Amino acid sequence: MFTFRPLRRVLSSAALAAVPLLAATACGGGSASGGTEVVAGHYPMAWLSEQVGGEGVTVRTLARPGAEPHDVELTPRQIADIGRADLVVYIKGLQPAVDKAVGERAADRALDAASAVRTLPLPDTDGHEHDRDHDHERGASYDPHLWLDPSRMAALATALGERLAKADPAGAAGYRANAEATAERLTALDEEFQAGLRGCKQRTMVTAHAAFGYLADRYGLRQIPIAGIDPAGEPSPGRLAELTGQVRRTGVTTVFTETLVSPKVAQTLAREAGVRTATLDPVEGLAEGSGDDYLSLMRKNLQTLRTALECP
């Protein structure tokens, strides 16, 4: 018995014109309060920045709670925040608007998380080139969902500690100590997943979109995504019929829905295939009022997977 351990849019010209007014006094980076200011692209990067940065760091998140982060629209104030931040932590290829703003305003003060870990190629949606072409159009040449592998997050914690130490040498020892402690917690989480997903009867996950490639790669699972890396994509009737056949052939018992996107397509697939649904959280953001964090959401995912995959 296993036991757990405790729709892309372009910013208007009027909005872009307003940015210099907000950023005019903040061109060189730094916080008005004198602390280290970090801007994070979305929740997992914000969580990691808070853990590694500790009390000496102020973290702003560009994707608001309850919102799907892939197609985030930046306000002029957020673009100004990027321009004055001591460090921007993001994943290139995940949020095109963030990529653009970082390239224009913070290229020398940014940590692209994908540069700190081994990335995976864009997922193969079983020969359906439309999804891959759409993902390439977004600027993605690899799967950006790296935070769903705790071991990669542990490596990223170490890299983030070094970048914060460079940005704020006076706090270097604290950042490195926090990074080490955070990496240890993430390594423990990784070990929980390895133990919890050992010996499962099923090894196939049918997911709402291709967010779980890193998790599958780390723990020896197979991901069959309904949509590509962008959850806004919807399968054609022909693709849905193929997916229904795959679910039936593989003996999958569960189609996974998500928290921040509509479950309708996944529910339709489950109904057609005669299986149940369950929620598997891609941890792209927190729901409004949520009391969870990255670690608790990942542990909930582990419990969900153990049930769906019929693990001992």
TrEMBL record:
Pfam family of the protein (one): ZnuA
Annotated keywords: Signal, Transport
Feature: compositional bias, Basic and acidic residues: 125-140
Disordered, as annotated region: 118-144
InterPro entries: AdhesinB, Bact_metal-bind_prot9, Lipoprotein_PsaA-like, ZnuA-like
A molecular function (GO) term: metal ion binding
GO BP, sorted A to Z: cell adhesion; metal ion transport
Cleaved signal peptide residues: 1-17
Source species, domain of life: Bacteria
Family the entry assigns: Belongs to the bacterial solute-binding protein 9 family.
Descriptive protein name: Periplasmic solute binding protein
